[in-house]
Design a protein that fits this description.
The chain has 766 residues and is an alpha/beta fold. It is built from 11 helices and 53 strands. β45 and β46 form a beta hairpin.
Length: 766
């Protein structure tokens, strides 16, 4: 039995360790790489290594930042490089400079060009990924020459503009600014390109031969200019320069319903302003005629106060000057795309890919089949093998024959193709066949078959609770909900009328729903326990779990300094969403420099702190607290008042109160009564309307640096500590200064944190 307890305790530690590492990565992350200086006022060259933007960096007006082949730039969360001077980023055709965020879940910004300068901007063969704002030209910037060419912008998912070119000041800047934005690839982003004005008296912008495809934007039912991959304003026709916009491939960029991930529409360009008409001559917007191209714009057609966009002789096929991309896919003699249903005649048909330029025939690629597994209700991934590959003479067409027979068993799926490169080393944007069809199918399947299960549950609940008194307001809301589901099923019939088994099941569910509505009306009953909020206001119970801290003696989590906590709690539920809770807890924390990071181990400090905290918090339930929600997540915050008094652990059993010894320079240098700012995350389960089980993670941001008795104080010599504490018979010095330091600081000024993780059980009271 003891062995099982130890094993459980060990795995519980590891679970908590992983959770906190992810949640507070900014506190514990270790970075390998050279730190870029915060201020650059001369020429600095970065090459052959990893370079980290630890804090915001400024390149002064007389500074020049050069980033050469072999360098990789990592932005810490929220950081950027401000360019007042010059910037030169120069990779090569098959050796892109990687510019990304250190933490992909908490991104950095990127480069921001500001002010008037004689220095030029050149960015070529760089790959910008996982950034909030890769490149921005801020208002009133000015340079003589700007070249942004042959770059990749991929997986930048801020939901806002990723490239911004704002207007320049004609009075402060140059009379003519040459700006070339060409041969770039902008794909797989949830961000867009914003050009503030399509005409200017001093900005000569050429936006040519770029490929912009495979970008997704989230919305609901309709889009707008901010959901277009490229958008701008156009206000008049009297400026000196209009943007040169030719040879670009802009197609297959989609507005996606953020409720179910299905495609609403294709959207490729957006414009607003009071101008009359703007031409986009000689660009490729997909293999279609003018009227269909115009439907992929957000302009006059959607907003009659906007200018009109005219594709003006669009290209029938993409320009070979743009970075490589797949512009057409054929299957069984028909053109297919994300909207098509993928059907393969096993070992008979080939997938034919058409490219705008020659591709690297030696480069492998990844062909993946994503199929819907009904049994586990999720999308599964399967990497396919190709049995034969054919290239035509110009290497601008490829035929793939699939040898796997997975389609025979899993017929509802889609193909994803990625990993190809063009002859210049540009990775081709990934493409899919049938993705949108699969997601529409999943929605239909869930609506029908999961609805069927819910019907069974509702019937069982109604039968068991038939004697409950009905409340008309709630009864009517349930009936309205069921009528809404009936309407949804009627709409689904249009999608599924060709699929006999699904359509039959739909009709069965439709009749069942009608029966339930009638059943509720006739019996005047209500599934009270399912739909009414929990009506018991008070809860009381207990909490038990683990505790640990982060401070001067715990600079990195290693799983060795976890202690325990227990206490009581009470909660008052104002309604199904809001509650107030009070906790009274005993929390033990400890640490030892033996388990600290290597550079701090020589201090030999250690402590134990047995704390008593009173936590008062307001709690918000993310899901309503009622029986229909099996798991109820919640967050809470407020104030914590706690008593603490750190002491030095002694193998002999003696406790030396460190505060009274005066290790911080004088006795009683800090108060034993403190406050903290808490943030709690809870997951609760309501059982039988009587008991609530929960899991709690609580973080405490304190306003003291002395949970561990170690602050930003100078060392006190052993001799002085012994003189100040004669009653300890010469032990004060070895306790307060075990390494016998005579100079320097004992710790850093960062305030301490502590954490509690535990399980709760409370009883619901009237």
């Amino acid at each position: 039995m003891k062995h099982h307890k130890n094993t459980f305790y060990k795995y519980l530690k590891y679970f908590l360790l992983i959770f906190i590492l992810v949640f507070n990565f900014h506190l514990f992350g270790q970075i390998k790489g050279k730190i870029i200086p915060n201020y650059i006022n001369k020429t600095i060259v970065l090459e052959n290594g990893i370079f980290v933007v630890q804090d915001n960096v400024k390149v002064a007006k007389n500074g020049l930042l050069i980033i050469n082949v072999g360098a990789k730039i990592l932005f810490q969360p929220g950081t950027s490089i401000i360019i007042e001077g010059g910037l030169r980023i120069k990779g090569s055709a098959n050796n892109f400079i990687d510019i990304t965020s250190f933490n992909k879940s908490v991104e950095g910004y990127g480069f921001e060009i500001i002010n008037v300068s004689d220095a030029d901007i050149e960015i070529s063969y760089a790959k910008f990924t996982n950034l909030l704002l890769p490149i921005k030209f801020r208002n009133n910037w000015s340079r003589k020459n700007i070249v942004i060419s042959n770059n990749i912008f991929e997986n930048n998912n801020s939901g806002e503009s990723g490239i911004i070119i704002q207007s320049t000041d004609i009075l402060l800047g140059r009379k003519e600014i040459n700006f070339l934005f060409s041969f770039n690839q902008f794909s797989s982003n949830y961000s867009n390109i914003y050009i503030e004005n399509l005409e200017s008296d001093n900005l000569k912008l050429n936006f040519n031969n770029n490929v912009i495809t495979g970008n997704y934007y989230r919305g609901y039912e309709i889009g707008g200019i901010f959901n277009a991959p490229v958008f701008s304003t156009f206000n008049s026709e009297k400026k000196k320069y209009r943007v040169g916009f030719m040879g670009n491939s802009i197609f297959n960029n989609f507005l996606v319903n953020d409720q179910n991930d299905t495609i609403i529409s294709e959207i490729n360009f957006g414009i607003t302003g009071i101008g009359d008409k703007f031409n986009l001559p000689s660009n490729y917007f997909g293999d279609r005629e003018n009227r269909r191209i115009i439907k992929t714009y957000d302009h006059f057609a959607n907003n009659n106060s906007s200018p009109f966009l005219d594709p003006l002789l669009p290209l029938e096929t993409p320009s070979p000057l743009t970075p490589g991309h797949i512009w057409k896919i054929m299957l069984s003699g028909k053109e297919v795309n994300a909207f098509s249903r993928f059907k393969s005649n096993y070992e008979q048909d080939s997938i034919r890919l058409f490219f705008n330029k020659r591709i690297n025939t030696k480069q492998g690629f990844k062909l993946t089949y994503f199929y819907y597994d009904k049994h586990i209700n999720s999308i599964q991934e399967y990497v396919l093998d190709e049995s034969d590959i054919f290239f035509n003479d110009k290497f601008k067409e490829r035929a793939i024959y699939i040898s796997d027979d997975i389609f025979l068993k899993n017929k509802i799926g889609y193909i994803e193709i990625k990993g190809l490169e063009d002859e210049n080393g540009f990775p081709l944007p990934k493409v899919t066949i049938g993705k949108n069809f699969v997601y529409k199918y999943i929605i239909a399947y869930k609506e029908i078959f999961i609805e069927d299960k819910m019907i069974t549950i509702r019937k069982a609940r109604l039968d068991s609770l038939i004697n409950l008194t009905g409340i008309k307001t709630y009864k009517d809301s349930v009936i309205s909900e069921l009528y809404y589901r009936i309407d949804s099923l009627e709409l689904l019939s249009d999608e599924l009328i060709g699929t006999d088994s699904l359509y039959k099941q739909l009709l069965i569910n439709y009749d069942s729903l009608q029966e339930i509505v009638q059943y509720i009306i006739e019996t005047d009953s209500i599934v009270k326990k399912l739909y009414l909020p929990i009506d018991k206001k008070w809860e009381i119970g207990m909490q038990v779990g683990l505790s640990f801290y982060y401070g001067d003696l715990q600079d990195a989590i290693n799983g060795t300094n976890m202690d325990y906590t227990f206490g009581i709690l009470t909660r008052y539920n104002f309604n199904a969403r809001w509650a107030a809770k009070i906790n009274l807890n005993y929390v033990k924390i400890s640490a030892n420099d033996r388990e600290n990071i290597e550079r701090l181990r020589p201090r030999k400090l250690s402590f134990v702190n047995e704390m008593y905290e009173l936590s008062t918090q307001i709690e918000f339930n993310i899901k309503s607290a009622n029986m229909s929600n099996f798991i109820i997540p919640s967050i809470s915050t407020g104030l914590v008042f706690f008593y603490h008094n750190p002491y030095s652990p002694n193998p002999g059993g003696e406790k030396y109160e460190l505060r009274k010894i005066g290790t911080a320079g004088k006795k009683d240098a800090y108060s034993t009564f403190q406050i903290a700012f808490p943030f709690d995350v809870d997951f609760k389960w309501i059982l039988n309307n009587n008991w609530v089980l929960g899991v709690n993670l609580g973080m405490r941001k304190t306003f003291t640096d002395y949970l561990d008795d170690v602050g930003n104080d100078k060392w006190v010599s052993r001799e002085n500590l012994n003189k100040a504490n004669p009653e300890l018979n010469g032990k004060a010095g070895s306790v307060g200064n075990p390494a016998n330091y005579s100079s320097g600081k004992r710790g850093d000024p960062t305030k301490d944190w502590y954490y509690v993780f535990g399980f709760t059980i409370t009883k619901l009271l009237q």
